[in-house]
């Protein structure tokens, strides 16, 4: 047992950090720190910088542009990226559909999609959830019917994150209505510009628009856009959801926020002195930092296990990472609310025009608190994670 | 970075797990509790036979040169089996003082007896008003000729009844809460002026309140610098905290396992109660709490070797906080999920709960350590 990073790993961390310092556009970083939404342009610009460096799809196999890093290197890269902070690669392309395509797709599909995913030439979105199918995803109803050399797609997806930017969607569609729930589903990809696709924005409680409803009305999709085998889509979806094990803890994100809280708490006054000098506040902050430390170690245990025994089947420990990681993220936003106190109320009055520098940092704190309620809902809600632990770990 | 045990450590784990499976089922434990001092000399000698009592001592001193990980393995196993024997008091704490501050002569006088199981130790530190502050010492040690005279009262001294030697903290200089002026002394338990009142503790261990009245000891009884040993005490107590964290992880593992087995078999409403989702989610949360605790126990074990005392203490305090929160949740819910049977002495789960609870209040509780981390500038 040895929890120290090797010299090489430490040097790698320094290299990564330096690259971020030199290359992340400062305004992008500032907006991330302040919890603001980034424009499509800002995100794509940064991802292309990352891709040019060869780090855009770091965890892919080398032949498709990956880095060949060890599990520990991936961990370090993610942590530094999250805590710098800079936008993480677009998960829908890089972490979700990319691995499905290079694992289950044919050569033609790999050639067609993978390089474009890496360079974000296509912005992908995830068409899984439907109004009637959230946690019980396998009950989904969106239909794809084979007509000659086309799929005809009808139905509705919802909660589709950033579909307003998307060029492509990967979609779970029912292709065999007679089969049992999980058996008749296929994994089909197509252009969001196709005729019959309508995107309607949904405003979330923070006031932002990051999710959408997506309607399909007789959308025609070439048959070759099926990934893998017909009616095996559920297996690919499970593979996709189980793939993202350690990123979900978002330790780096919470670390960055805790540093920010400590910094702000040294400036904002309460009772005539900085709020950090209030013992009750300080202890709450310490409590959160301790939970995060424990989570970081739990995550490292999973990373080390992967490094040693390979990424076999999904590790139920990832449910621990999801539950604790989301709880801690939410706690950090609560602590920020506590720091800001009565100035939580103004509703982004100044916008991002720099007109009120002194109060700029307050604008996104309440929205960020509201927005972060999502993290225990999506990606398999925390209740679903508890079901997984009960079944897969405890055998209940 | 590597969380796996090496070959030797795996063997160590197998050997202690094997020994305890053979000799420490719940029924045997009840019998050991009735023996003198509340634990079994026979089991103690078996631990000695397997070399476990010599584990942390240097090879030059007759030990096995084991480090933090080895102690963690043993303490986890002792926790899992709810062991009563004074490993913490004798090997971890007593041994710790001798390892860090003992002269060759002191080691020669005490270590062989620890290793062969013939002698046990006890740490007489807690005072009526000191609570968790290690520097709060009212007991005095006054110079007399070459030696010292000790006066004071010590409370809840684990293994105080059986120990052959007491390790006593006493003030040689200054006021009750001064950080300087504290010494550590090896006092024979049968020295003139030592009186003991023994009793079983809530978790089935045994402790004693000890009064020292004009106890005279020689110059060879001083461990380290008699006027400035707070750092030494903190170091050894930190090691004790790390060991307690590991013991608690073992206790939590067994509590969760026992509880899950119970709810799989207990039937109400015509089905196993483990089929109710509210209980499943509770058990899942117990698992999460236990895993977070395990991570921090490992972290604390590593931190035991940190050169920088402040970083070491901060990390171990953080671990004690996580362990304290986790053990409270796991312990309480283990009882809850057992229903009425969890309230009885007959079922073993309650005994795990009680030991866990006492660990929270040993060498600093959750609030105490949380405050230390907070005042020390945090952990990020
Ligand atoms: C901000 C945001 C972004 C999203 N982005 C995407 C996206 O890009 N693409 C996409 O496909 N989806 C996306 N989702 C959808 C997300 O995956 C679903 O919200 C999630 O699966 C939960 O489904 P639901 O909202 O229908 O809630 P429901 O499934 O209706 O759940 C409601 C409540 O019941 C609980 N519950 C449900 N089943 C059980 C059970 N068996 N046991 C115990 N409790 C249960 C849930 O935990 C929850 O608390 C996003 C969601 C949000 C909030
Ligand atoms: C100190 C004490 C005094 C008592 N005094 C009396 C008395 O004077 N007279 C008398 O008749 N009884 C008495 N009782 C018995 C008491 O009413 C029972 O303990 C209680 O009804 C629970 O039953 P159980 O212990 O069999 O637990 P179980 O019913 O086996 O329950 C075990 C666990 O499963 C949970 N559980 C059970 N069913 C469900 C479900 N459907 N959904 C979710 N969770 C479930 C319970 O909440 C509990 O956590 C006493 C109990 C105690 C501990």
What layout of secondary structure does this protein have?
The complex is a heterodimer of chains A (396) and B (380).
Chain A: H1 7-23, H2 26-33, H3 40-53, H4 71-83, H5 91-104, H6 107-118, E1 124-127, E2 143-147, E3 150-157, E4 168-174, E5 185-191, E6 197-202, E7 211-222, E8 226-227, H7 233-243, H8 251-265, E9 269-270, E10 273-274, H9 279-309, H10 317-340, H11 365-371, H12 382-393
Parallel strand pairs in A: 1-4
Antiparallel strand pairs in A: 2-3, 3-7, 4-5, 5-8, 6-7, 9-10
Chain B: H1 7-23, H2 26-34, H3 41-49, H4 68-80, H5 87-101, H6 104-115, E1 121-124, E2 140-144, E3 147-158, E4 165-171, E5 182-188, E6 194-200, E7 206-217, E8 222-223, H7 230-265, E9 267-268, E10 271-272, H8 277-303, H9 309-338, H10 349-360, H11 366-375
Parallel strand pairs in B: 1-4
Antiparallel strand pairs in B: 2-3, 3-7, 4-5, 5-8, 6-7, 9-10
Describe this structure in a few short sentences:
Chain A has 396 residues and is an alpha+beta fold.
Could you explain the architecture of this structure?
The complex is a heterodimer of chains A (396) and B (380). With 396 residues, chain A is of the alpha+beta class. Chain A has 3 domains: 83 residues, Acyl-CoA dehydrogenase/oxidase, N-terminal domain (Butyryl-Coa Dehydrogenase, subunit A, domain 1, Orthogonal Bundle); 116 residues, Butyryl-CoA Dehydrogenase, subunit A, domain 2; 149 residues, Butyryl-CoA Dehydrogenase, subunit A, domain 3. Chain A is built from 12 helices and 10 strands. Chain A has a 4-stranded mixed beta sheet. In chain A, strands 2-3-7-6 form a 4-stranded antiparallel beta sheet, with no helix packed on it. A two-stranded antiparallel ribbon of chain A has the order 9-10. In chain A, a hairpin with a 2-residue loop joins strand 9 and strand 10. The longest helix of chain A has 31 residues. Chain A is globular, with a radius of gyration of 22 Å. The two termini of chain A are 32 Å apart. In chain A, 44% of the residues are buried. The model of chain A has no long low-confidence stretch (mean pLDDT 92). Chain B is of the alpha+beta class. Chain B has 3 domains: 113 residues, Acyl-CoA dehydrogenase/oxidase, N-terminal domain (Butyryl-Coa Dehydrogenase, subunit A, domain 1), CATH 1.10.540; 106 residues, Butyryl-CoA Dehydrogenase, subunit A, domain 2, CATH 2.40.110.10; 145 residues, Butyryl-CoA Dehydrogenase, subunit A, domain 3, CATH 1.20.140.10. Chain B is built from 11 helices and 10 strands. In chain B, the strands form 3 sheets. A 4-stranded mixed beta sheet of chain B has the order 1-4-5-8, with helices on one face. Chain B has a 4-stranded antiparallel beta sheet with strand order 2-3-7-6, with no helix packed on it. In chain B, helix 1 runs parallel beside helix 4 and helix 7 packs parallel to helix 9.
């Amino acid at each position: 047992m040895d929890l120290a990073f090797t010299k090489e790993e430490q040097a790698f961390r320094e290299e990564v950090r330096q690259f971020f310092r030199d290359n992340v556009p400062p305004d992008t970083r500032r907006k991330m720190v302040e919890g603001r939404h980034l424009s499509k342009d800002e995100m794509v610009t940064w991802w292309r910088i990352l891709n040019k460096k060869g780090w855009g799809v770091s965890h892919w196999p080398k032949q498709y542009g990956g880095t060949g890093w060890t599990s520990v290197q991936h961990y370090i890269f993610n942590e530094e990226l999250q805590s710098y902070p800079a936008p993480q690669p677009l998960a829908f392309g890089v972490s979700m559909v990319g691995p499905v395509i290079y694992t289950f797709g044919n050569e033609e599909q790999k050639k067609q999609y993978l390089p474009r995913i890496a360079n974000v030439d296509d912005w992908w979105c995830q068409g899984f959830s439907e109004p009637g199918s959230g946690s019980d995803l396998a009950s989904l109803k969106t239909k794809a019917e084979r007509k000659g050399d086309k799929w005809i797609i009808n139905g509705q997806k919802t909660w589709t994150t950033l579909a307003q930017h998307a060029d492509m969607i990967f979609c779970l569609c029912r292709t065999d209505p007679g089969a049992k729930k999980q058996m008749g589903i296929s994994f089909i990809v197509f252009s969001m510009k196709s005729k019959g696709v309508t995107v309607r924005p949904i405003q979330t409680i923070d006031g932002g628009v990051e999710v959408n409803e997506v309607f399909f009305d007789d959308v025609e999709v070439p048959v070759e856009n099926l990934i893998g085998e017909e009616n095996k889509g559920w297996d690919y979806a499970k593979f996709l959801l189980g793939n993202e094990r350690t990123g979900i803890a978002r330790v780096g994100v919470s670390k960055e926020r805790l540093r920010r809280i400590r910094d702000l708490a040294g400036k904002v006054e309460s009772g005539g002195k900085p709020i950090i000098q209030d013992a009750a506040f300080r202890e709450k902050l310490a409590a959160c930092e301790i939970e995060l430390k424990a989570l970081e170690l739990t995550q490292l245990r999973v990373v080390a296990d992967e490094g040693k025994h390979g990424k076999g089947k999904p590790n139920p420990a990832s449910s621990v990472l999801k539950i604790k990681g989301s709880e801690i993220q939410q706690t950090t936003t609560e602590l920020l609310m506590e720091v800001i106190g009565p100035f939580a109320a103004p509703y982004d009055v100044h916008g991002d025009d720099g007109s009120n520098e002194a109060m700029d940092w307050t604008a996104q704190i309440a929205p960020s608190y509201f927005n972060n309620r999502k993290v225990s809902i999506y990606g398999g809600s925390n209740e679903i994670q508890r079901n997984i632990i009960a079944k897969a770990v405890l055998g209940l | 970075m590597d969380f796996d045990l090496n070959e030797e450590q795996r063997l160590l784990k197998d050997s202690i797990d094997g020994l305890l499976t053979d000799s420490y089922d719940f029924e045997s434990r009840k019998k050991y509790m009735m023996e003198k001092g509340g634990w079994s000399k026979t089991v103690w000698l078996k631990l000695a036979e397997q070399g476990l009592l010599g584990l942390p001592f240097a090879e030059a001193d007759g030990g096995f040169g084991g480090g933090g990980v080895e102690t963690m393995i043993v303490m986890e196993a002792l926790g899992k089996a709810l062991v009563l024997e004074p490993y913490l008091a004798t090997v971890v704490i007593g041994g710790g003082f001798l390892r860090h501050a003992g002269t060759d002569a002191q080691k020669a006088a005490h270590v062989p007896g620890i290793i062969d199981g013939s002698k046990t130790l006890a740490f007489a530190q807690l005072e009526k008003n000191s609570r968790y502050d290690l520097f709060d010492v009212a007991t005095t040690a006054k110079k007399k000729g070459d030696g010292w005279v000790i006066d004071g009262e010590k409370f809840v001294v684990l293994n105080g009844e059986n120990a052959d030697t007491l390790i006593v903290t006493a003030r040689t200089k200054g006021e009750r809460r001064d950080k300087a002026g504290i010494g550590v002394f090896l006092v024979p338990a049968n020295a003139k002026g030592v009186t003991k009142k023994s009793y079983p503790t809530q978790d089935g261990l045994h402790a004693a309140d000890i009064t020292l009245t004009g106890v005279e000891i020689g110059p060879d009884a001083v461990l380290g610098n008699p006027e400035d040993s707070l750092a030494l005490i903190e170091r050894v107590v930190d090691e004790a905290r790390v060991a307690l964290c590991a013991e608690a992880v073992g206790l939590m593992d067994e509590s969760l396992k026992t509880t899950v087995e119970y709810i799989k078999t207990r039937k109400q409403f015509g089905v196993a109660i483990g089929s109710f989702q509210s209980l499943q989610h509770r058990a899942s949360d117990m698992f999460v709490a236990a895993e977070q605790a395990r991570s921090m126990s490992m972290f604390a074990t590593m931190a035991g070797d940190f050169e920088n005392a402040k970083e070491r203490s901060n990390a171990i305090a953080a671990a004690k906080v996580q362990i304290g929160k986790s053990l409270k949740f796991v312990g309480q819910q283990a009882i809850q999920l057992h229903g009425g049977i969890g309230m009885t002495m007959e079922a073993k789960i309650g005994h795990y709960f009680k030991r866990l609870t006492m660990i929270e209040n040993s060498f600093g509780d959750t609030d105490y350590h949380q405050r230390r981390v907070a005042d020390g500038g945090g952990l990020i």
